[in-house]
Each structure stands twice: as structure tokens, then as C-alpha cells.
Amino acid sequence: MPDPGVSLNANRAISLTLSLKINDVKERSIKVNTFEWLEMSPLAEWVGGSLIGYPLMLTSHGVGMSIVVGILFVMNLRLLGCFNGIAFSAFNPLLKLAWAGFVLNFISGCALFIAQATVFIESIPFLIKIAAIFLAGINAAFIQNLMRQKSVNWDAGDVVSESVRWLAISSLVLWSTVIVAGRMIAYLDVG
Amino acid sequence: MENYFEWILSTALSSWVLDNEWVWPIAETFHFFGLSLLIGSLLLIDIRMIGWFKQINIQAVHALLPLVFVGFTVNMMTGVLFYFGDPERYTINIAFQMKMLLIVLAGLNALLYYWKIDSVMYNLGPHDDTPALAKVVGAASLIFWFGVLMLGRLIPYLGTG
Lengths: 191, 161
Hints:
By secondary structure, chain A is mainly alpha-helical. Chain A has helices at residues 4-39, 42-49, 53-79, 91-115, 117-120, 124-155, 162-188. Chain B has one domain (2-154). Chain B has helices at 2-10, 12-19, 23-50, 65-85, 87-91, 94-122, 132-154.
């Protein structure tokens, strides 16, 4: 004779799983709708649909990248001991230029993102790229702060400490990750 | 022209690019590193030549030139791979043609620098202002190279035939 208690529990478990699944589906559909909604915004339609929107944003994104990565690359190499003739303090104004490139890429990047939000949000390389940008941005702010405080002393002959060198190395690695992952979006995306 | 394309597509290099699907994305990634190196270090050199950021030692920016050449070499090599992988599309593409034209102009601009300005630059103090011709050459270099970058990005969007 079957134990009614067990089957009742089993039924409960099944209905619990079912309701979880329904919630899961609901949550997903809300998530998708947010990104679908972004894709349908007027800006997204301009970027994705007009003749110049997408190429303009993509071109700006390339210009910004060369400014940010170019300047930070040289600065990091300087921190690691290359180009000894260039004063550390000379990089302070250049870092402002690098942040201008960062802002340009944040804006153009957002525009490119919303044009295909549902595709990007499920792309692993894209998510890696965003995580790397986040870390690289924090890293850059740290280095900038150190440069402001110490560049004059470094120029006067103080040794750049090992922890600063490691910051420079992680900056090089993080920005390289941004470039590699960014390039891979087009090849590995799930859309 | 047909013979020319046939010759390119019959080369081992072309087959290598076309037969290995990883070549293109990896070459593109290197092309992006190269352009960041090339334009990033040129940016520092050129803005100092224009006369901005005088706190940068003008004698020291010379030390960045090897980075420019590394970036240029990486991009020329990867660029040749792209061209050999799809010669018909690139050759007739207006953005590609203008990009190549700008690279030639940027090269001539660099020659002008070595011919007229390089020797003068060595006599400048570290934080001196630069002569007018140096400013023109520096500005032209920035315009040419950013133009190269932008046109490259536009190759898929501007007319192919």
C-alpha cells in the first residue's frame, strides 16, 4: 500500500519545482524585456537603423580606444622603467586626455550596446570586456592618484615601488584583455 | 585585374588566411594592439611637436619612436594578411583606397620631418616651444593617422563597388 504522506510530499516537491520554473521564466522575460526595450529606444534605433549611426559610433570607439590604451600603455611602460627621459609628472595632464578618451568610449560604447542589447548581454566576451574595463578603470584611478602624489618625487630620483610596478603590469594586462575580448565579441557571440 | 586577383588568391599566404578561421580574428586583435601603440605614442610625440604639453621633455619623446615603428610593423604585417584574405573586396573599397592614400601621405609627412625638422629639434631646450613647421607637421601627422584609423573602421560601411 502506498504511503500517502510520501506521495503528498512528492507532489509538493513537483509543484514547488514548477512554480520555481515559472518564476524563473517570468524573471527571464522581464530581463529580456528590459534589453528589448533598450533596443527599441529612439537612440538605439538611430544607432542601429540610420546610415551613419553605427559606423559613427564604431569609429568614435576606435578613436577613443587608441587614446586611452595608447596613453596608458606608454605611461605603464614608463612606470616599468622605459623611456627614462620623459618626466613622470608630464603624464598628469596626459591622464586627463586619457579620461577624455574613456568618456568618449563610454558614450559610444553605450550607444553600440543598446543597438543590440539583447545580443551583447548574453555574449561572454562582452561580459569579460565590461568586467575588465571596470577593473582597469579602478586601476587607472589608483595610478592617477599615485602619480599626482609621487611623480615629482619619482622625477627627483625616488624609486618607483614594486606595488606601483604591479599596478602598471595589471593595467597592461587588463587593457589587453579589453581589446582581445572586444575583438572576440564578433566571433564568439551567441546571437 | 582578374589575373592580379587570381595571382593573390593562388599564393600560399592567401590560402593560409582563408583555410584557417582563427587567423582573421587573431590578426584583427593584433591590428588593434598595433594601432593603439602606433597612435598612442604618436599622439604624445605630435602634441609635443604642436607645442602643447610643454612639460613633456621634447628630447625624450624621441624615445617613443621605436614604439611607433613596432605598432606600424605589426599593422602592416596583419594588414597584408587581411588584404591577401580578401583582395577583391579591399581593392575596390573606397575607404580602403583612401586609407592607403593617407598612409602614404603620413609617410611623406614623416620624410618631411626628417628632412626639415629633426635636426632643428635636437637644438631645442627640453621645454621650449616648437618652430611653426614642426607644429604643421605634428598636426598633419595626427590628422593623417586618426584619418587612417577612422577610414579603416569604415571599410565595411563605405561603398564596395
